[in-house]
Structures are given as C-alpha cells and as structure tokens.
C-alpha cells in the first residue's frame, strides 16, 4: 500500500514538472513570436518611410552640404532617392519633398500638415523676455521671444480670413490710391527726382519703400501719417533677420545668453508698440461713442479694425497688447518677402538693360504720363511676365516647413508619421533639376508669358498652391507692379542708377 502511494506521488510530481517545463518553454516561445511579428511590422513600416540620405557627417549631419552647394546636393538626392527623402539638419530628421510630392505637401490641409506647428512652434524651457509666456515657443525667426503664443495662434486661426475680407477686388481702387501715395512719399524720402541718390543697402531701401505703401493699406491712414512708426517697422525687420543667423548656428540652450549681445529687436518693437497704442485707443473711443449714440462707427474696415472687432471663441475680445503684437507680426509678413523680391527685380533690370528698355516702352505706351490705375497695370503683359520670372528665380531652395499632425500618405506609397517635419524643394519645383544658379542669360520673361500672378500654377509656388494661396498676394502683386510700373519720368532711372 505504501509502495502504491509512493508510485502515485512520484507520478504526480513528474506530471507537475512536465507541465512546469512546458509552461517555461511556452513563455519564451510566445515572446519570440511577439518579437518576430513586431519586427515584421517595423520592416513594413520602414519600407513606407522615406529613405535616409547617406554621407551624414558626425555633428554636422547634412548641414555643410546644404550650406555650400545646396542646389546640386538636392538635385543629386532627388535623382538618387526619388521625390521624398530624409536629411539630418541641425541634429533633426527633416523630410524633403520635391516634384509631385512637394505639390501634395503644399496643397495639404492645415489640420494634417501644419505650417504653424512646423515653422512657428517648438518648445523652449525658458522665457528670454519678462513678458513672454512661461512655456514659450520658437520658430525660425524666433518671433515668440517678443510675441505671445496666444497672438500667434490667433493670427493662424483668424489672420488669413481677416486679410481676405479686407483685400477684396471692390477695395482695390482705394488700396491702390493709398499704395501710390505711400510710394510717392517713400520715394521722395529716399531718392531725388533729379539726381540719382546712391543706395547702400538696396533691400533695406525697398523695405522702407514697401512699408510706406503697405502699412496704410493694412492698418489705416493713421499709420501712413506717422513717420516714426514707418521707420521703426523696417528696422524691426532688419534686426529680426540679422539675429536669425546667430540663433540658427547656436544651440537653443545658449539663446538666452546670446540674446543680450545681438541686435536689439525689442527696442524697435517697443517703438512700434508705443506708436500703435494711441491709434488703438482713438479707434476704441470712436467705437464707444458710436455705441453710446446707437449709431454705426463708420470706421474703415482695415486689418486694425477687424482685430478690434474680432471675438474669441469664449466670447471675449482681444486686448490692446495682443492687437499691437498682431500688427507687428503682420507688418513683417507684408513687408519682408515683398521688399526682397523687389530688390531682385531691380537687380535684373541692372543685369539686363534690354529688359529695362522694353519695360520703359510699355510704361510709355500704356500709362504715358497719366496716373497708375488697376486697369492700366492689368494691360501691362510684359510687366506681369517680368515680375513672374523674377519670383520664379528668387524662390528659396527649401521652404514651407510643415509638421505632420497625423500620419500622411503620399501618392507614391511613402508615408510620414505623426510628428515628422517636412519641407518642399520650391526652387527645384520652379526651375527643374540641375538648373544651376540664376544668371542674366537664363532670365527670360517669355517663359512665363500668359501665366497670371493671381493664378498660381505648378510652375509658380511662391505664394502657395490651391487653397493655401497667400491671402496678401493681390496686394503684394500690386505693390510690385507699382514699383516696376511707375510712370514718373525719372523714378525708374533714379532707383536703378542709385542701386
């Protein structure tokens, strides 16, 4: 009997050990299967991701290639890896899109590929200025060092709509009148009608000239009559742009220590701030008086007025500080790119006297000695083609940085995941592969003949594509047209000779 119990117990112990061995064997087998499945999914995901460009240098990544021969490097990448590839720029992986993929990026909904999240927002753990938010955000220009995040968000959500409602075709005659008055005022300040005044910094000259034209249109006639404000806005932009290179080269953790030694953007910002505040107070006082009398205020519906009347989602309105900061940001948007393009326009006139002569002939034939009109500018086909070709050649190598707010699939099967940053090769999109540097011989307005600046196409992406066309584009185009098509007898010769 005892022998039977011993045998039975031994049998149970053996079964228990066998089941334990099976369990211990099943666990690593299951884990191995999990790893294999995960690796398989990872490989499938990796196949859909853009290829990474080789020859990334330690510490520098692909920065040196982009710094010294960016066009040829991007052309080689496109030819080797296709229309979509990843570069290591400033320690981060950035996807570059060209060709059809670039058009997809430009046309993408902002809720999927966000320009604000890609270009404007990036967390920093410190506040460089006392009035900045506790958690501040940085873009390439680092506007957030002086502009609150709430203002940037507001401009992203409301800015484009306000501009589209302000710059409409029915308002163009009145806006043209203000632009021409600003042009005459600026030209009278910086150039003489009889003797060509030498211009040391052409871009800054056109920056001042463009400011005197754009500010009265966007922010009201009061701004156009304030010379201190008109001079502070260009200086604000100059300091902002000069500091960008230093911020770009230095790691972000050193920005707070570097800022006191750079150009004082805050100084010119405060000048503009102090000159705009009284204008806002006067506008609010007129609105309050009209409300008390139960009458319409009859104020001009410019950008400033729309900001004053804009209502937040919570039912409140924007305060004076937020409105002032918004106007400073909008002044940069309206002036910077336009003035840079105008400097390029007159550079081509210097390089190609035959084009200058043809433009003068068209001005004489269509406008004569009469005033500039919208109808007259629309008839100037050569001026339109000339400006179009200027913009085509002045496009950045890469631009339109966006951040994926969700996974984005391209038509060629590639995919970028949520959180990835992508830029478009706009110059390559305009000029094609291996176009090389722009030269006077390559500049040909006849190439873009028939393409209107107000209708962006595949060959013209400066102002955006599809639904993402820049809302300030009509006003920018008119400013450029007035610069190039001024019928003043000596203005064109004066500016060109001064340059």
Automatic annotation (TrEMBL):
Listed A to Z, the keywords are:
Heme, Iron, Membrane, Metal-binding, Monooxygenase, Oxidoreductase, Transmembrane, Transmembrane helix
- Give GO MF terms, alphabetically: heme binding; iron ion binding; monooxygenase activity; oxidoreductase activity, acting on paired donors, with incorporation or reduction of molecular oxygen
Q: Which cofactor does it need?
A: heme
State the InterPro entries in the record. Answer: Cyt_P450, Cyt_P450_E_grp-IV, Cyt_P450_sf
The membrane spanning regions, by residue number, are 21-37
Q: Does the keyword Membrane apply?
A: yes
One GO term describing the cellular component: membrane
Its annotated compartments are: Membrane
Q: So where does heme get bound?
A: 470
Family assignment from sequence similarity:
Belongs to the cytochrome P450 family.
Tell me what this protein is called: Cytochrome P450
State the organism of origin.
Answer: Apophysomyces ossiformis
